[in-house]
Amino acid sequence: MKSVLKFLPAATLALGLAFGAVPAAAQQKASPAAIAAAKEILVMKSADKIYANAVPGTVEQVKGRLIAQNLNYQKDLNELAPVVAKQLAGREKEIGDGMAQAYAAQFTEQELKDLVAFYKSTLGQKLINSEPRAIEQGMAFTNSWAQNFAETVASAFRAEMKKRGKEI
């Protein structure tokens, strides 16, 4: 699981880039019904867990940068962090809105409605419940494979270097 967590910042960045890359025109063409269906899908998939701590997390990151640049104000910045976080609480919902826009830009209104119906089905519910474990197991396998394969590659390098009369 720790290896998966290493990829979380990259995954978050990828999500941000993917959703940020949706053209503004495509975002504006989505019907209210398409946006509503996209939001329903995101709720069913618990996508809000992805960005639930976006506000306090960003406040902490910015605070850390400001402290690094202003060591004399560390006490003040530490005291202000909860105040700023409280002032900006709820803004993470903007991420959900952006994600819904991104879904609506990629799928038609009917496709989104069909996806809602699928996710409400028995198989859809199983997918929602089982997919995180399947991804975790897949990542664990991938990490294990990569470690084993790296040794295979290193052995190939050693063998080729030995042919050149060099031991590594």
How does this model look, in words?
- It is a single chain.
- This protein has 168 residues and is mainly α.
- It has a domain at 121-168.
- It has nine helices and no strands.
- It has helices at residues 2-20, 24-29, 32-44, 48-51, 54-69, 74-87, 93-106, 109-120, 122-163.
- Helix 8 (109-120) packs across helix 9 (122-163).
- It starts with a helix and ends in a 5-residue tail after the last helix.
Task: Kindly report the oligomeric state of this protein.
Answer: single chain
Overall shape: it is: flat
Instruction: Provide the gyration radius in Å.
Output: 23 Å
Content of β-strand: under 5%
Summarize the structure in short.
Helices cover 83% and strands 0% of the residues. It contains 9 helices and no strands.
Secondary structure topology:
Layout: H1 2-20, H2 24-29, H3 32-44, H4 48-51, H5 54-69, H6 74-87, H7 93-106, H8 109-120, H9 122-163
Helix pairs in contact: 3-7, 3-8, 5-6, 8-9
